[in-house]
Amino acid sequence: xxxxxxxxxxxxxxxxxxxxxxxxxPVEEKxxxxxxxxxxxxxxxxxxxxxxxxxxxxxxTTIDYGLEAVTAVSPQAMRTASMPVxxxxxxxxxxxxxxxxxxxxADIVKTNGNVIVYSQAKTYLIKPLPPEEAExxxxxxxxxxxxxxNNTLIIISRDEITAYNITNPKNPKVIWQLxxxxxxxxxxxxxxxxxxxVRKNSIECPIVWNGYRISYDKYYIPIIPPIYIDDYDITxxxxxxxxxxGKVENSVxxxxxxxTTLYMSKNNLYFAYHLKTSEQKLMLNFLKExxxxxxxxxxxxxxxxxxxxxxxxxxxxxxEITETIQRYLNSLPSEKRHNLMKELQNDFDxxxxxxxxxxxxxxxxxxxxxxxxxxxxxxxxxxxxxxxxDEYNGYLRVATTIGDWRFRDRMxxxxxxxxxxxxxxxxxxxxxxxERIYAVRFMGDxxxxxxxxETDPLLVIDLKDPKNPKVLGELKIPGYSTxxxxxxxxxxxxxxxxxxxxLKISLFDISNLENPKEIDKYKLKEWWRPALRDYHxxxxxxxxxxxxxxxxxxxxxxxxxxxxxxxxxDDEHNSYVLRALFINNYLYxxxxxxxxxxxxxxxxxxxxxxxxxxxxxxx
Length: 619
Known about the structure:
alpha+beta; four-stranded antiparallel β-sheet; 40 strands; disordered N terminus; disordered C terminus
């Protein structure tokens, strides 16, 4: 623990008890849970019992990106609704940058080549071709995250999900609409189905969600060992929705907390929980096992009796043990008191080191996309983001970090391989002690992991044998990357920061897996860019070997050629730049208030279009 000075051990006990509130009520003796699992609640009596155990908490209000609005089209569009837009057949157009190819992710801009849909203060329908004649042809007052399937536009706003037929964008028609009945969390689009996750800040069952009844057999709760903090008081509803009709075809509810991560393959949806050790219980276990070493028999026996007393919870035990130890310490000379506290400090550090892999866990729920049956498993540590999970050849690979800012020197990183039943069959632990994961990318039977403290190790990990993962190569350079993007020919682009915290773009060569190299880098004077945290903001155009990066009011365009990164265009807007896409040989860049069209052959600015946006918070 990060425990300083003489009485920190006792102080931590006392602080923890204050944070946790007043004394627990006597608890009924129950069979101890040995491992994490997710199970259906089963029936009403078990649900009522579970609900009673849920602790009441204050909820933190999240910032909404959407405003409640009535669907409407602009007056100009209404006057010209009978005039269809003449389509120009596109040769090619970009898609949203996603984690899994073929599985779409909601974003604020989409195109099918014939129309661009861009959502800000409202959702704009834009005619993109020919570029000289590009114009806003309509707008919808709803805004939010978008999907575009041919001519079906789906808008996920704050409280609704609405599908429109935009075959004639001047006259969009509502096809179907669902009330979210909760807060939107995340989604994916695959095989003409939207997989939607909604959060309800309550524990309730049965649930009827848009006509689909979720009963006790489809309401899943986490069962966790007592050493972990039980803070699950939110219900997540995971639903499969037919994108054409809006019918809810399947749904389950999973109880969780705010800290969750979603990843979806073409077979399964994975829902990850963070399981944090109760430091109260960890210290109680330490004292129970080692009291005889530090205290006389009567004090050690009293400590064990308090810990073994099932009439009171851990918080009550803490208060009594703290007072008992404090009285004993006050009876000692100052020198002995200091020495004993030092011994407790050092021994607890070693105790924590011994059980380090058990300090925190990630619990994982696996939902089959066809049957919606749920399996569960766990790995040590916590996840960085959805890129920390990947399914390949029936195995789930997971990258984790154990520890937080209090454990800067002890943090470790790990790779776990789980089989179809989510049992760990292979692992690689203890990587880069004292650092944490900043970026990870699984590609086939390899994983590329960036950790950071003072230098940026890029680790190449071989997962060809799922039961025996191993490090193949390592590169240490200043700074770090937070996003890795493969561009072919054994090259990766890394987006991150240099050791001076300025923005840096790295070009990695992984042709020799045992000796990866940073073959070029490009530094910018700026400190921040959306792509550091939002990979949807990154765009790669394979035809022209260029990539787009938004930085404040700049739409930077870089070319990768002859293993070098070169800026080919600084397209400056009058507000924050957010996204880009390409259609044919033209790049369309989007800020809060403008769209620019650039010729990718000459980088000449062809046209600007202005949006009448309200002030916008970058997301």
